[in-house]
Amino acid sequence: MSGRQVLARADLIGVRQSWDGPIIDADVHAVVPSLDALRPHLSEQWLEFIDERGVPEPWGVAVTYPPNAETTARAEWRPADGRPAASDLDLLRQHVLDPLEVDFAIVTCCYGIDSIRHPDFAAALAAAVNDWLIEEWLSKEPRLRAALVVPPRHPEQMLAEIERAGSHPGFVQVLMPVRSDRPYGNRIWHPVLCAMAERELVMGLHWGGTADGPPSPTGWPSWFVEEYAAEQQVYMAQLTSLIAEGVFQAAPGLRIAVGEIGFAWLPSLMWRLSKEWKGLRRDIPWVRDPPADLIRRHMRFTVAPMDAGPAEDMAEIVEWLGSDELLMFATDYPHGHELPFDRLLAATPEAARPKLMAENARRLYGLGEAAG
Amino acid sequence: MSDRFAVARVSDVPDGERLIVDVGGRSVGVFNVGGRYHALLNRCPHAGGELCRGELLGLLESDAPGEYRHDPTRKLLACPWHGWEFDIETGQSYFDPARTRVRRYGVVVEPGEALAEQVQTGESRLAGELVQGPYVAETFPIAVEDDYLVVTLRAS
């Protein structure tokens, strides 16, 4: 056990051994320790509802991140007192912000709001999570920026929460769980995506979501490993939908951060979409540019978990992306992955390394120089 | 040798129709679109499909999801193999007009009388004359009272 811990820690420390330039971590998690933590941010009416019914934690949390799974938190990042990993700002500082000397880190909070079917409670809880993020994380740590949590099913509620809290300077992104009841390109979402573009909020397409449909595009898997290891299928479906439905024509300024899914799967999707578009584009005449160009123009990808294969193949995959502006360094703290950043750096042309490690994210999120 | 080939009587290619003919050993599609004639190499620059057997479709464009601009007067030829669209007027592909294009040839209408004289002087030839191999040359007698389509094999 301890041997594995040391190994696991080495790859983060290894980042600073192989890279001394600026770092922006484009995906760290903040975990709501329990529903109790949100009580100060809920109205009396909802507190009464919770107590009267005995409302539990949203079940989506445990489905998205099974509490004791290795992928949910590295052993050495789990607090000794049994609290959930990543529920404590000081630990985030100790584990990531300080040792990596990050300029900024982008916080994602997956609280399973998507698993609540009560539309009004979902909206109230999303607002509570955002207020909690402001109070407990953003206002206490100038290096943090966050993704706004929105109720996932009703566009008008999403718009209302973006309206209510989206102008807080700490929010640079809107969290959109990759599993949704309808693909995000669908026209029902266009007003929401346009609002993000207008406010210069990035759409954060991130692992998670407890949609009406199964987590694979073809039916229910039997085990968590199937769901987690092959979730790029759903990301592919979302990217395809966003392109085909003309989202980038409806909202030309929209930018998307694709999080927690790596990038090795991307080149083949770009090739295939661009290829088929040439012959099938009459279905979707609003798509006037090759899909690969749209992806390179509008989307960025966090690199963790890393799926780029053995070192000798990694450089080729990086090259196949066709742009050095797509990748954003991320630890995906506190999740437990092998993160061979030294290999990724070695596979990245020297001129592209500052972009990978910080500048692509700095540009995407409009971040300035280090906050410290 | 002349690169002008008489390929068909005008009346053989009514409006909206096409003819695929062998011109100096090359397969060429001759199209009549609204009374204007176009000649294209019958070979898709993508994978070599018989482009000129594809469908002629109106130009379909859009500025926003759900909004369609369909211009039935501007025709694109869609390759029967992979659907790539080529502008019949320019030979340019829809998706990469600068670099992916099909070869176009000039096509003019010549009265039979003039054509007969050109054939005699060697200024024009009849398509099919030089065709060898398994192809059956489509030859036709020139009638002075008819008009003919003459394709120039220099790329235009």
Describe this structure in words.
The complex is a heterodimer of chains A (372) and B (156). Chain A is an alpha/beta fold. Chain A has helices at residues 2-18, 35-38, 44-53, 60-64, 89-97, 119-138, 155-165, 190-198, 224-229, 232-244, 247-250, 266-280, 291-298, 311-320, 341-347, 353-364, and strands at residues 24-29, 104-108, 144-149, 171-177, 202-206, 256-259, 299-302, 327-328. In chain B, β5 (55-61) and β6 form a beta hairpin. Residues 129-137 of chain B have low confidence and may be disordered. The interface between A and B is medium-sized, with 17 and 20 residues.
Summarize the structure.
By secondary structure, chain A is of the alpha/beta class. Chain A has helices spanning 2-18, 35-38, 44-53, 60-64, 89-97, 119-138, 155-165, 190-198, 224-229, 232-244, 247-250, 266-280, 291-298, 311-320, 341-347, 353-364; strands at 24-29, 104-108, 144-149, 171-177, 202-206, 256-259, 299-302, 327-328.
In terms of topology, how is this protein built?
The complex is a heterodimer of chains A (372) and B (156).
Chain A: H1 2-18, E1 24-29, H2 35-38, H3 44-53, H4 60-64, H5 89-97, E2 104-108, H6 119-138, E3 144-149, H7 155-165, E4 171-177, H8 190-198, E5 202-206, H9 224-229, H10 232-244, H11 247-250, E6 256-259, H12 266-280, H13 291-298, E7 299-302, H14 311-320, E8 327-328, H15 341-347, H16 353-364
Parallel strand pairs in A: 1-2, 2-3, 3-4, 4-5, 5-6, 6-7, 7-8
Helix pairs in contact in A: 6-7, 7-8, 12-13, 14-15
Chain B: E1 4-9, E2 18-23, E3 26-33, E4 36-41, E5 55-61, E6 69-78, E7 85-87, E8 104-111, H1 112-121, E9 125-126, E10 147-155
